[in-house]
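Schema walk-through. Below, the input block comes first and the output block second. Nothing else is stored per chain. Lengths vary across the set, and this one has 542 residues.
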Amino acid sequence: MGKGDRCAVFGCNNDRRYPEKLLIKDHVTTIKWHYCPPKSRRIWTKLLNREGFEVTSNTRICSNHFVLGGPHGQHPHPCLYMRGPDTSTHSLEIQEIISGAEPTSTTTTRGGQVKRAKHETRASKVAKISSDHCYDTPSVAASEEMPLDSPPSPCRSSSFSCQDLKEEHGYAFMSESEVCTCVKCEVCKRKWRDLEHDRDSLREERDRLKEEMEKRNSEVQTGKDTVNHIYDIENLKHSDKLIHLHTGLASYALFIWIFSLIKPKLPYMQYFKSSQSQSTKSYQVRRTNKPGPKRLLSYQNELLVTLMKIKLNLSEQFLAHLFSCGISLISQVLSTWLPLLSLELRCLIHWPTRNELKLYMPSCFAKYRNMSAIIDCTEVPLQRPSLAKANSQIYSKYKGRATAKILVACTPSGTISFVSSVAGGNMSDKEMVKRSGILDKFAPGDTILADRGFNIQELLLDKPVRLEIPPFLKKKKQFSESENKTTKQVANARIHVERVIGRMKDFNIMKAELPLDMADLFDHIVIIVASLVNLQPPIIPL
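--- output ---
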């Protein structure tokens, strides 16, 4: 038998290991097993009255033996049914203890008969003490006959009258209204009715809460979750302006199109929690639904959270408030959905062929033969690291602070055709071109436009690619007329890549300081932003 599994009262067979055999008395709602405080162990040992048995820390007594169902209030000790669950002989004891009537004790004779002996109440003890000391205490009948203004009779062995004694030692006297000598008096009945009323009200409250809990569980299981989110895609889909404000997308239809691209992957998606999340799970191999409870946010709301983070750069705490969920859930959603969106939307960043470029060539590029791309770099503020060496690797002299640098290439029609991986702000434009892999995209005979900082002619010698950049002043005092004309032509054509980068900066996450704990997600963020920019209307009219 385990420690504290069985009730220690003699004759009580309640055992927590066998709930189907529990006996619950009328004054108890739920059976519990109560332990004895160290200071009360001697008292409980005497109350149990079992030969050779002592109450220890492992002793447990069930709720049937406590007046209030447990050691509470004025009844901290077990006193009911101490010789077995005999309901016929102990229903009166509950009333006696609750009402304050004379407590009784039981003794067993040799013949097995139970005798009940009444103990002296406080009033009887006071009366006995008064008689022993010869105080003249008038009887009730005499007090009724005696007028109120008559002087009290002197005491036989004291110079003080009984009235003086009551005034000096009133704590030793009790009024008739305070003394209960009958179990069936009106005071006891009223107290008993009040206790029954409180018990019934508590039972009704318990049943109501139990019903609400069952209803709530059924709603969760059937998918009818009634949690009201402050923000929900259902509240925004009626207005394309609201969709554009929160996500940067032109319409709700575009939002649904993006969701349809990733919807087939969602049942098998594994949410990022730690490094262990990178291992393939069994449900992903079997292509079955992910086990576990239903998620608090719907898939569309999780997509909305991710796009709002990119567009508005709201903090995780504020997003958690808007969607009535925890901060850890928002962090988990962002860490999972950003790589997923980057993987699924990467196809929107396309390097076109020469024939495709000729189909969508604006008139301002007609004078450039085989124009393939316009390239430029942009920088995003980055949180300053504490290590000096790390700070020197990402410190930008141009911006005067720690930044992340990105190489962007766009087509003559204004769509983004290439974005590089994120690099430190101290890297030069020439080194960015060399390490980004964009040189492998060029075909022989292509023409590219760039700023003066992209002095990369020697990198293009392996492929006969023409580089159009504004001329350098060098040691001359001013440009010639032809050089000025060339500078204006290149600037007028190259300005479109600045407009494309400006569209990327419309997403607040590309302007605000990026925290270091999101540095591993910044490559995914850049790809998502570039893809969303390509879904916008053309920047250059055809």
